[in-house]
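can u do me a favor
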């Protein structure tokens, strides 16, 4: 309760400072918009259905990209973690691909797949999959070598070793990658929508930026910040539930 009160105070202080900046015209009025103007836009956009419709379009692409990247990334990461010789061969190529700025591939995906949902999913997938692969690899490598040697001594089969030792050890690291990946899926979809899209929050940002309606841009950014916070809390709750068997740190 005390924590929530402090968080509320920080929020109120931020809104007060925001209003002060606008009222004193410390920033160009074209750029600076008051909290009242921003929330007035959000209310009108919600009532008209524009905000809800475009939020659904964005989140649909986010969840599809996230699920696909999670499945593919976990499978590849665990496989590379188990097959060290294959990992040594492929790691330089994964590192090179991961170093590429995927936003630069957005025009390629748009030309190849059009301005519908497919291009947004492709860009977000290309961002998230490498995060999940790295997390899954790190999880497998975190297994205690002593436990692995004891497992070999007691004749545990490879499927048993995977399900009873490696997978439980890997889950915390995998979930860390998934939490990060979900936020990056949102960023990837928004980036694609800003460049070209039929609908979505990113497309609204691009549209209203061109019209210099900065109150609309700030309002949509607030919506994205709230969505990212909710997604992070949901993944954290899911992680706590799935890892409830772990001892709690004192």
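np, heres the sequence
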């Amino acid at each position: 309760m005390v924590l929530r009160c402090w968080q509320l105070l920080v929020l109120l202080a931020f809104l007060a400072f925001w209003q002060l900046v606008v009222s004193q015209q410390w920033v160009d009025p074209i750029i600076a918009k008051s909290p009242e103007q921003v929330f007035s836009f959000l209310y009108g956009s919600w009532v008209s259905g524009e905000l809800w419709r475009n939020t659904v379009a964005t989140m649909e692409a986010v969840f599809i990209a996230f699920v696909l990247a999670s499945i593919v990334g976990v499978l590849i990461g665990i496989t590379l973690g188990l097959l060290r010789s294959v990992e040594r061969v492929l790691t330089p190529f994964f590192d090179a691909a991961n170093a590429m700025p995927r936003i630069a591939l957005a025009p390629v995906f748009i030309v190849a797949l059009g301005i519908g949902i497919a291009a947004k999913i492709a860009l977000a997938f290309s961002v998230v999959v490498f995060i999940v692969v790295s997390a899954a690899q790190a999880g497998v490598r975190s297994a205690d070598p002593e436990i692995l040697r004891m497992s070999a001594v007691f004749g545990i089969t490879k499927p048993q070793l995977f399900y009873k030792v490696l997978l439980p050890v890997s889950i915390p690291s995998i979930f860390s990658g998934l939490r990060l990946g979900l936020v990056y899926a949102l960023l990837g979809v928004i980036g694609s929508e800003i460049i070209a899209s039929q609908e979505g929050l990113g497309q609204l940002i691009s549209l209203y930026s061109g019209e210099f309606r900065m109150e609309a841009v700030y309002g949509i950014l607030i919506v994205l910040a709230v969505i990212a916070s909710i997604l992070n809390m949901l993944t954290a709750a899911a992680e706590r539930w799935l890892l409830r068997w772990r001892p709690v740190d004192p």
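The mean pLDDT is 85. hope that helps!!
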